[in-house]
Amino acid sequence: METKWLEDFVSLAETRSFSRSAQLRHVTQPAFSRRIQALEAWAGSDLIDRSAYPTRLTPAGETLYDQAVEMLQNLQSTRAILRGQSAAGQNVLEFALPHTLALTFFPAWVNRLKDKIGPFKSRLMALNVHDAVLRLVEGRCDLLIAYHHDAQSFQLDAERYDMLTLGQEVLAPFVKPAPDGSPLYALPGQVGQPLPYLAYAPGAYLGHLVDWLLKQASSAVHFERVYETDMAEGLKAMALEGHGIAFLPLSAVKKEVRAKKLVSAGAGFEVSMDVRIYREQPIGKGNPKSLALALWNDLLQRGL
Fold first, then answer.
1. Rg for the chain, CA atoms, rounded
2. In whole angstroms, what is the distance from residue 126 CA to residue 101 CA?
C-alpha cells in the first residue's frame, strides 16, 4: 500500500468527485481511478459507492477515511519534525523546477535573491512539470517555480498554496539560418511539403502549450514530427544542427540568437507565459524554515 493512495482516497472522500480530485492530485482521471482501485484491492473491500452521484463512501470507506486522516496527519507531523532536525544545522532551501527553468531562469534569479537577503544554501530538483508540482503537494520541497499560462494551467488549491509572479517568458519557434541568414525552414509551410518539426514529448507542459498555440494560429501549419524529447535543451541542440523547427523559451536561446546561430522561424507564432513561484502556506504546517519565510516576505515586499 502506498501513502499516495490514502491521500487520493481522502481527497475523493472530501470532494466527492473523481474528476475534481484527479485535478487536485495532478493525475489523469483514469490514473486516479486505478489508484483508488488499488487501495480497494489492498483493503479487500469496496470503499466507494459508484452507483451514487455525487460519489459517496461505503461503510468500509467511512471506517478507512477516519483512520486515513489520522495516519496522514501523524505522518505529516513526523515528517515536519524530521525535516526540522535535518535542517537545523544548515537551513537549506529546497526548490523544485522544470528542467528549462532550472537551466535558464534559476541561476540568475538566485544571484539577485542573494543580493537582497544574503547568502544561503539551496538544493535544486530539476524535474518535469508534473513531478515538480507533485514535490510541492507531497511536501518534499519548500518552493516550486514553474511556467503558467491560462490555457495550460495546473490546479493548486488557493486556500493551501500561495503564489507570486516572478517574471515573464516567451515561447517561440526557432530554426537554424540558411547561408544568407534567412530561416532554413519558415512557418507555416505548404501542403505537401511539411516542415520538419522538433517536438516536445507527449505529456510535456511546453508541448501542450505549443499544441494550443498552433490551434490558435490564423493559418494552418504544416509539420512533420521528425524528433521529440521532453527537454528544451535537447530540442535546441537539434535545431542548431539544422534538423528542423523547435519552439523554445527565449531565455534558453538568447546567446544563440545574438550569435545568429538561430533565427525566428516565423512571426505571429509566439506565446507569453508567467514564471511563478509557489509555496505551501505555513499555517498548520508545523515549523517552516525561517529562511523560507524570510525569502517569501522579501518577495512580497520588494519582488524579484
1. 23
2. 8
